[in-house]
């Protein structure tokens, strides 16, 4: 078992916002955390890497490869981020540094975690840009985030997250800000890279149709609690909770492909 979450709680200003969440992500599995806004899915994802906002207090247990993450010093968690666990956020414009070229930003993670020299890391950045299908990778790494389209910025963010070949990728609504065509391309890219590298995936979304493109299992959250979980095919064909039934009704028609979760 690569990731085990047991009875996770998160309190903010004395209010419990995540209450007893438990789920597993076996080696190589693709699991979705899904729910409406305020369900606790993004806070759960941030807790996995010790990135909760100031004032938030987490309890329970988060074990990665048998090692307890809750309570680990920030320095040890920082080493793990990018090296063992990568994360892609919803809006790359805010995740990327506007005054550094995207090549330097991809290379920075490689230099930190692999100890490579600047020139070697920059050469690797070109390879990583090519891997996520950025056009003209040798040229695009010299550009700044504002010179790229939204889809290209998200590909840069994916390249940064995967540059050191982590064993687990956390993707927090990585396609929400993109139009439908680019969204489908990014979902296909993520699924292909995860499968190719044998990574585990935790994918956070509010859209069941989107989730059907990348995950095989899902955990449905409402008000900080798990209301249903299981194989995605079961949730798509025979949802048992009203929450999942509502998500199924709201599934984005343009991305709906019933065979996508197989």
Automatic annotation (TrEMBL):
<feature type="domain" description="ABC transporter">
    <location>
        <begin position="3"/>
        <end position="248"/>
    </location>
</feature>
<dbReference type="GO" id="GO:0005524">
    <property type="term" value="F:ATP binding"/>
</dbReference>
<keyword id="KW-0472">Membrane</keyword>
<keyword id="KW-0067">ATP-binding</keyword>
<dbReference type="InterPro" id="IPR017871">
    <property type="entry name" value="ABC_transporter-like_CS"/>
</dbReference>
<keyword id="KW-1003">Cell membrane</keyword>
<dbReference type="InterPro" id="IPR003593">
    <property type="entry name" value="AAA+_ATPase"/>
</dbReference>
<protein>
    <submittedName>
        <fullName>ABC transporter ATP-binding protein</fullName>
    </submittedName>
</protein>
<comment type="similarity">
    <text>Belongs to the ABC transporter superfamily.</text>
</comment>
<keyword id="KW-0813">Transport</keyword>
<keyword id="KW-0547">Nucleotide-binding</keyword>
<dbReference type="InterPro" id="IPR003439">
    <property type="entry name" value="ABC_transporter-like_ATP-bd"/>
</dbReference>
<dbReference type="InterPro" id="IPR050388">
    <property type="entry name" value="ABC_Ni/Peptide_Import"/>
</dbReference>
<dbReference type="InterPro" id="IPR027417">
    <property type="entry name" value="P-loop_NTPase"/>
</dbReference>
<dbReference type="Pfam" id="PF00005">
    <property type="entry name" value="ABC_tran"/>
</dbReference>
């Amino acid at each position: 078992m690569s990731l085990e979450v047991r009875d996770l709680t998160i309190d903010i200003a004395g209010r419990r916002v995540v209450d007893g969440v438990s789920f597993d992500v076996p080696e190589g599995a693709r699991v979705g955390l899904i729910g409406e806004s305020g369900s606790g899915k993004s806070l759960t994802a941030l807790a996995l890497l010790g990135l909760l906002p100031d004032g938030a207090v987490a309890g329970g247990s988060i074990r990665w490869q048998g090692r307890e993450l809750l309570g680990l010093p920030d320095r040890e968690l920082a080493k793990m981020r990018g090296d063992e666990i990568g994360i892609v956020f919803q809006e790359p414009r805010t995740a990327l540094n506007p005054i550094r070229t995207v090549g330097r930003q991809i290379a920075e993670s490689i230099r930190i975690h692999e100890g490579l020299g600047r020139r070697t890391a920059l050469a690797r950045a070109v390879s990583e840009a090519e891997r996520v299908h950025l056009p003209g990778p040798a040229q695009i790494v010299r550009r700044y985030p504002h010179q790229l389209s939204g889809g290209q910025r998200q590909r840069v963010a994916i390249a940064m997250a995967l540059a050191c070949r982590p064993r687990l990728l956390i993707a927090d609504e990585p396609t929400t800000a993109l139009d439908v065509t680019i969204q489908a391309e990014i979902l296909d890219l993520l699924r292909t890279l995860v499968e190719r590298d044998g990574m585990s995936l935790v994918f956070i979304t509010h859209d069941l149709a989107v989730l059907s493109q990348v995950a095989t299992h899902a955990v449905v959250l409402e008000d900080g609690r798990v209301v249903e979980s299981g194989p995605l095919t079961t949730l798509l064909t025979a949802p048992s909770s009203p929450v999942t039934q509502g998500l199924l009704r709201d599934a984005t028609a343009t991305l709906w492909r019933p065979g996508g979760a197989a």
